[in-house]
Amino acid sequence: xxxxxxxxxxxxxxxxxxxxxxxxxxxxxxxxxxxxxxxxxxxxxxxxxxxxxxxxxxxxxxxxxxxxxxxxxxxxxxxxxxxxxxxxxxxxxxxxxxxxxxxxxxxxxxxxxxxxxxxxxxxxxxxxxxxxxxxxxxxxxxxxxxxxxxxxxxxxxxxxxxxxxxxxxxxxxxxxxxxxxxxxxxxxxxxxxxxxxxxxxxxxxxxxxxxxxxxxxxxxxxxxxxxxxxxxxxxxxxxxxxxxxxxxxxxxxxxxxxxxxxxxxxxxxxxxxxxxxxxxxxxxxxxxxxxxxxxxxxxxxxxxxxxxxxxxxxxxxxxxxxxxxxxxxxxxxxxxxxxxxxxxxxxxxxxxxxxxxxxxxxxxxxxxxxxxxxxxxxxxxxxxxxxxxxxxxxxxxxxxxxxxxxxxxxxxxxxxxxxxxxxxxxxxxxxxxxxxxxxxxxxxxxxxxxx
Length: 451
Ligand code: GUN
Ligand code: ZN
Fold this sequence. Notes:
- This protein is α/β, with parallel strands linked by helices.
- Helix 2 runs parallel beside helix 3, helix 4 runs parallel beside helix 5 (about 215-225) and helix 11 (about 335-345) packs across helix 15.
- It has helices at about 95-110, 115-130, 145-155, 180-195, 215-225, 240-250, 255-260, 280-285, 295-300, 310-315, 335-345, 355-360, 360-370, 395-400, 405-415; strands at about 20-25, 35-45, 50-55, 65-75, 75-80, 130-140, 160-165, 165, 200-205, 230-235, 270-275, 290-295, 320, 385-390, 420-425, 430-435, 445-450.
- Guanine (GUN) binds next to helix 1.
């Protein structure tokens, strides 16, 4: 992908309304999500969808004719780590070993702002290349790394939620916070970035074992002082980690209860993994309108465990799919949907294709508490769209051509598509197009940007 930073003349091309044509994934609820065939989507110069209507009712010109493609809301990745771009595909004997051996050394390099800026640019381009238009992202303990990530996202109009990692114990000295300084920097970053463009800030304690009680209490105080920012952390990912937390916080009822005691479980709080929760924890998530970021490829890669999709469904708490790169083994939403399906099957549960798509698009946006102008293709919504072309590979083209129902179509796309099939990603009205055909889909260039 050509970075937008390297192609300044390709951006800020002013344009009036633009019109897309294709089959559209639509619906405000799990029950109503469906493919509406041969629709027209009109987007104004501010990047807002002004109409979605049957193509037969449209008299005007078509700028982007994607008949035979699916136009879906941009994917929402509910949890991943920007400094772990270079950690992806680093094997280890489970979470704690992986953190020590690969992750902490990689994150130390982000003390260098030049390195942070270079990786931030690659990272956000990789999101767009995979059709992801919103994501909740961990940076490192370095405020300059947050600045780099936010700046790279701002220039592409991405709807990112991101935050500086808080960790003041059980990590290498180069990554260990001075507690008060970490809280001060968090507040400064909230003021600098939250609400700027489509950016949001998340208070980001890494996980309970790497924060002192004082740091968690400070994070909770900031969350109270700034009720409209997000909170994100890890919870109940791995049995060794869960046992460690029980030792460190002997008075807490459960791992999640540690965070609850510090008033961190609340609306707009995102808890990654949640494999080892019990029903009381799930009820707490639901009661506080929090959400679980489910990370299937990570859970398989690190051998963390199998998320209980049936219990999540029964307890009716919000959840969204996530890549958890670099613990996760791919940026691809299709890989996450496939792994989610397989994990559910290993526990005797079957996720429907509509559930897979819902929890990675519109339902994910709702779970995270994003504004209801995000994650949907409807009039008044921000134009975050991904065009998926089944014919970009012969196998999927054949399978899609034979599929008779929405369920079959969505299932074969979830299981067989990859980044080759992303024809175009539109990010808040900015159009990024994948040039070329099979095998050259990494040639993404920004095509236009509202004035
Ligand atoms: N728990 C604490 N830190 C991390 C991390 O970076 N990745 C994952 N998967 N789990 C964590
Ligand atoms: Zn993570």
